[in-house]
Amino acid sequence: MPEMPAVNQAKSNYQEIKQEPAATTSTQSAEFKKYPRLRELIGNTPLLDITSMMPRPNKHGVKVQVLGKAEFMNPGLSHKDRIITNILDKAEKAGKIKPGSVLLAASSGNTGSSLSMIAAMRGYKAVVITNDKCSRETQDAIRMYGARLIVAKPGQDYMKMELEYGKENPSWFMVNQYDNLDNPEAHYKTTGPEIYEQTNGTITHFVMGASTGGTISGVGKYLKEKNQDVKVVLVDPVGSVLKGYQETGLVIPAHKKKYFVEGVGKGSVPGAYDRNQIDSCIQVNDLESFAMCHALAMQEGISVGGSAGLNVFGALKVAESVTEPAVIVTLLCD
Fold first, then answer.
1. Residue 59: per-residue pLDDT
2. Domain residue spans of the chain
3. Which of 58, 196, 228, 303 is most solvent-facing, going by the fewest CB within 10 Å?
4. Cα 70 to Cα 52: distance, rounded to the nearest angstrom
5. Annotated catalytic residue: which of 11, 33, 63, 80?
6. Eight-state DSSP code of residue 60
7. What CATH architecture is 39-73+190-332?
8. How far apart are CA 131 and CA 109, in angstroms?
9. What integer pLDDT is reported at residue 119 of this predicted model?
10. Tens digits of per-residue pLDDT, 167-184?
11. What is the pLDDT, as a whole number, of residue 133?
């Protein structure tokens, strides 16, 4: 029985299709789109408007804007990613470290976590020394990245332990964030310029707590070079010596009471702290700091740590009392 014309046509079409070369897929004919690696996302964090957190209007009836720089959006969830990046970049360039090197740091928490993460990214080993104020979550994060964690016993000074371990292990690279001037330089090169550009140069006040002093010193220096009228305000927890040192130039024990806010305040003055960049001080206690953390979560949906609560409380105090229109910036550290 002869085949039908439609069948013959279908066969012909099929044969033609078989003879054609296979179509080239889009991934074969075009280059892959470039996507960032996590390490490339450090910095360039946004400013968030937190003016709504003001509990009452400005006393003098002037317009005020309060902004928080969302440093918790860094890959390591804090602003300490910036200093570790700068410190390691410079150490690599100078030939002080190479893949496989051991990096050593004393940290109240965030620097240790950032160091552990970035060490893992770059092929280094990390040893982090902290104290019992470091939260369980941060300790777990440090271990998760593969670092060795040493928690100082009561009576031990974890910062001095870094120097002791460094002497015992001369091949290890000591980060020494408290005295390393690459710390404030990181904020001078990145955080300060970002804040100035994001506010279009309208910033009037930078409000910040200090532990190493790197952030407030580096940002303060940059902002004052751009506009000498910018005011830099230190927020210090009750129990820290930095407020007294800032006001008198002397290290005077401020309080015997232990404070529980992590990552701010000190019992001594770090070498990275530059007193010349700071104009005034505000003192804030634990209750005020932690209450502000809860308020930020419940009113703005912002979940941050105690040091950020301390910063915001200080910024709002400044906002309440300024006598001229102001743009006030603080850091939401972690």
1. 94
2. 39-73+190-332, 80-174
3. 228
4. 16
5. 80
6. T
7. 3-Layer(aba) Sandwich (3.40)
8. 9
9. 98
10. 999 999 999 999 999 999
11. 86
No. of helices (H) and no. of strands (E), the chain = 12, 10
CB-based contacts of 134: which residues, under 8 Å, 6+ apart? 107, 108, 109, 112, 151, 262
Whether 80-174 and 39-73+190-332 are alike in CATH topology: the answer is yes
Pairing of strands 280-284, 231-237: parallel
The residue whose two tokens read 């030939």 is 95
> Measured between alpha carbons, how far is 268 from 241 in angstroms, rounded to an integer?
7
Q: Are strands 205-209 and 173-174 parallel, antiparallel or unpaired?
A: unpaired
Q: Do 102 and 171 form a contact (C-beta atoms < 8 A)? A: yes
Length of the chain in terms of residues written: 334
* E strand spans, 178-249: 205-209, 231-237
Report the CATH number of the 80-174 domain: 3.40.50.1100
Distance CA 269, CA 266 (A): 7
Question: Which residue type does 95 have?
Answer: G
> Could you tell me how far CA 186 lies from the centroid of its own chain?
11
Say how many C-beta atoms besides its own lie within 10 A of residue 321's C-beta.
13
Contact indicator for 39, 64 with CB cutoff of 8 Å: no
Give residue-wise pLDDT tens across range 9-19: 554 554 554 55
Q: Read off the tokens for 3.
A: 């085949």
Clarify whether 11 is annotated catalytic.
Answer: no
- Taking the whole predicted model, whether its pTM rises above 0.70 is answered as yes
Q: Which residues of the chain have pLDDT under 50?
A: 1-2, 7, 11, 14, 17
pLDDT for 253:
76
Identify the pLDDT of residue 21: 54
